[in-house]
Specification:
Length: 303
């Protein structure tokens, strides 16, 4: 059975209005297509929480920093729809650029604070594009819940902040990063890696987990980050844009692991920019945190 595809906001709102009449809850999973298991895990999580699930597919031109990157982004709507059908998603909302940004469109949603630094420093305007399209999708779908992966951790914070600041009544649900068997965080960009680059790519996650464990065990954050940066370059990364320890709750830069944190990285392998992040437990919680990770197999999965 095929998933219904809707192209216009008018039709989308007519459909959701009927759901609302029946008292049904609605979830949205925003995507740019080229769906992989990470996206599909969001859809499964949404199905568990809501009566109706909308998956959006829109390759948003406003969040790309280069026309070449936009042109190279994979477009696989038929394959994506086939992947969604067995999961029970109810609608694929796939508007074109004119539907989302009609002639005369002149509004930009800009989120300060959490959008600064990290990817925001290297991709000027990117998070304005993300915030603008996500705000529109929230208003178009009227969703009660919205599901985002933790791999794009800064983006998750931007979305949370805009929903809170603009009083949009949607619950932002964060879902864990899904990884390949060798530890590489799943991404639509992984398909751009050459065979040699794909072989080297899992080292990014391995280095992150190793560094997180060192910091939690009490190692100097400055030294741990410096060693990790060198290890990434030795693993084949041509450039490390950033490798930083940030607070889990507000992305504040941290010189010490005094509260729950994230270790975040953006690095280039060949012509592909990869991002990833891992949790870092506070130093005082070292024994319990490491024991839990060993029980869960998280560290073993990327060893």
């Amino acid at each position: 059975m095929k998933i219904p595809v809707i192209r216009t906001v008018k039709e989308l709102r007519a459909t959701t209005a009927e759901w609302r009449k029946d008292g049904l809850s609605v979830a949205v999973v925003p995507t740019m297509g080229a769906l992989h298991e990470g996206h599909l895990s969001l859809v499964r999580a949404a199905r568990e929480r809501a009566d109706r699930v909308i998956v959006t597919l829109f390759i948003n031109p406003k969040q790309f920093n280069s026309t070449d990157d936009l042109a190279a982004y994979p477009r696989k709507e038929e394959e994506d729809a086939a992947k969604l059908a067995p999961l029970g998603a109810h609608i694929l909302f796939a508007p074109n650029a004119d539907e989302m940004y009609p002639e005369g469109f002149a509004t930009t949603v800009s989120v300060g604070g959490v959008s600064e630094g990290l990817c925001g420093a290297f991709r000027p305007g990117h998070f304005d594009g993300v915030a603008t399209v996500v705000t529109k999708l929230f208003l178009q779908t009227g969703a009660d819940l919205a599901f985002f992966g933790e791999k794009d951790f800064q983006q998750l914070h931007v979305v949370r902040r805009l929903a809170r600041d603009l009083d949009i009544p949607v619950e932002i649900v964060a879902c864990p990063t899904i990884r390949e068997e060798d530890g590489l965080a799943m991404s639509s960009r992984n398909g751009r890696l050459s065979a040699a680059e794909r072989k080297a790519a899992p080292r990014i996650a391995q280095i992150l987990f190793e560094t997180a464990a060192q910091i939690t065990a009490g190692s100097s954050v400055e030294k741990a980050l410096a060693d990790a940066n060198n290890a990434l370059l030795a693993a084949g990364c041509q450039q490390v844009e950033y490798l930083e320890l940030r607070a889990d709750d507000d992305l504040a830069p941290l010189a010490e692991a005094t509260r729950p944190a994230r270790l975040l990285v953006a690095a280039w392998l060949g012509g592909t920019r990869l991002i990833d992040n891992v949790e870092v437990a506070p130093v005082q919680d070292a024994a319990g945190a490491l024991g839990e990770k060993e029980r869960s197999g998280t560290l073993r999965a990327v060893a």
